[in-house]
Amino acid sequence: LTIMRATCTDPNPLQDFCVADTTSTLFLNGFPCLNPSTVTAAHFKTSALGVPGNTSANPFGFNVTLTTPKNLPGFNTQGIAIARTDFAKGGLVPPHIHPRASEITFVVDGKVLVGFVDTSNKLFTQILEAGDVFV
After folding, report:
1. Which CATH class is domain 15-88?
2. For site-directed labelling of 47, which of 5, 86, 91, 121 has its Cα 20 to 30 A away?
3. Within its chain, how far is the Cα of 107 from the centroid?
4. Which regions of the chain carry the CATH code 2.60.120.10?
């Protein structure tokens, strides 16, 4: 009798954080890390999401402002993302997918119809108002 066991996981990070060195000319998948001794709390803060986006520049009436290692260097290698989406009245985001990712919607102002389709083709929708969150 033989018992076999297998486990698959992503490896643990080699360091607590890898603040992006956005000035480096080294090319890799992502950004190289700053020396941890030069990292400050400011590397983990951004004001990029505090400015409403231009919804009239998009035919669907929405604008997405992303955080990236360029405007939030402490985001580098953390495996998370955050964005601000602004809508014009009647605006919409076309159906899209997020392979190996999830989306959380938090409404600051107004009403938004949100939803998703699961792998069995079941539709889940909800109307959100200010203060509501949908996963």
Report:
1. mainly beta
2. 91
3. 16
4. 15-88
Residue type, 51: V
Residue ranges of the annotated binding site for Mn(2+) are: 96, 98, 103
Which amino acids are annotated as binding site, given as ranges?
Answer: 96, 98, 103
**For the whole model, what pTM was predicted?**
0.75
Q: Point out the annotated binding site for oxalate.
A: 98, 103
With b meaning 16 or more CB within 10 Å and e meaning fewer, what string describes 63-98?
bebebbbeebbbbbbeeeeeebebbeeebeeeeeee
pLDDT band at 85 (very low <50, low <70, confident <90, very high): very high
The predicted pLDDT at position 7 comes to: 67
- Measured in degrees and rounded to the nearest 5, phi and psi for residue 122 equal -85, 130
CB neighbours of 24 closer than 8 A, spacing ≥ 6?
31, 32
